[in-house]
Amino acid sequence: MAERILTGIKPTGQLTLGNYIAVLKNLKKTNERGECFIFIADLHALTLPIDPAVLRQNSIDLAAFYLAAGLDPNKSAMFLQSSVSAHAELNAIMQNYLYMGELSRMTQFKDKSAKLKENAIGLGLFAYPVLMACDIVLYDANIIPVGEDQVQHIELTRDLVNRFNNRYGNILTMPKAELRKVGKRIMSLSDPSVKMSKSDPKGDVFLKDEPAVIRKKIMSAVTDMGCEVKYDPENKPGISNLIQIYCAMKDIEIPEAEKLFEGYRYGDFKKAVADAVIEELEPFQNRYKEIIANKSYEAVLKQGAEKASKIANETLKRIQKAVGLLQLD
Ligand code: AMP
What we know:
This protein is 54% helix and 7% strand. The protein is mainly alpha-helical. The chain folds into two domains: 4-183 and 295-323, 3-Layer(aba) Sandwich (Rossmann fold); 211-290, Tyrosyl-Transfer RNA Synthetase. Helix 9 links the parallel strand 4 (143-145) and strand 5 (176-178). The mean pLDDT is 96. The chain binds adenosine monophosphate (AMP).
C-alpha cells in the first residue's frame, strides 16, 4: 500500500526544538515518500485556555514554520484542522467508539488535567484522543510521524480501528506511529527529567529564539556528575539529552557521537551542540521570516484545505454509511 503520511502540531505556546526534531526536520524527506497531510491542530489547541489573538498568531507561525522546513505545497496538503469540517463531524460519530475508561488512562490527560482546577477541566481535554483518531482515519493515513509522547494516542487509534472494523467491516485504515531513531523525546535543558514542552523559557529552545539566546540556553543546560560525554539516560540524563539533540541535528547515531566527543570536556561538548543547533536553525529562521513577510502561507493553507476536505469528506461519507446514517444523494 502506498504511504499516506499525516502529521500535526498544536499551535499552543512557542514551538520548540522537540517539535522541530519530531516533525519539522524531516518534512522535506517526508514529502518525497508519499502523499502527505500536514496540519495545524488548532481545534486541539482549544483544549487548554488560550487567548484568541495568540492562537491566531501561533497558527500563522506554524504555517510559516512548516513551509520554512521545506514542505512542498505541490506534494503535501497543508491545512488548518478547523478549515476541514469533516474532523469535527467525524468526532461526533467516533466519540461513541472510544470508552471513558480508556480515555481516563491517557498519560497526557492525567498530566495536563493535574495542572487545572478540578471543576475547570474541559471535556475536550478528556476527549482529545477521539479527535486525534479522527484526524488520522479521515485521510486513511498509515504513517504518523510523532514524538514518543503521542504513541499512546496512536495506540488508542489503532484500538479504535480494530473495534470499528470488527463491527462494520474493513472501513478504516490501520495507522502506525513513526518515531525518530534518535530524538523521540527531547528533554528540558533545565530539568532533563521532564519533556521539553513549550512552557519553560529556560529549559526549552524555542524556534524563534535568536542564535545568541539558543547558545546561552544550551551552554547553561543542566549536566551531570562525572566528566565523560557518554549516553546513559539513567545516570547522565542531561548529557544524554544533549547527545540526542546533537545526533538529531547531524543525522547520526549515538555511538558515532560518543566517539566524536571522546575526551571532550562538558563545556566544549556543549559548544559543539550549540553550534550544531544554530547551524541548522539560523537558515530555517531566515526562511521563516521571509515567509511571514510575503504571507505565502495564506494561499497554501487555502489550497491545502480544499485538497484535504475532498479526501476527508469521502472518508466521512464511507463511515456515515457504514454506521447506518442515511445517505440521501
Ligand atoms: P505538540 O507540540 O504537542 O502539538 O506536538 C507536536 C509533535 O511534536 C508531536 O509529534 C509530539 O510528539 C512532538 N513533540 C513535542 N514535544 C517533543 C519533545 N520534547 N521531544 C520529541 N518530540 C516532541
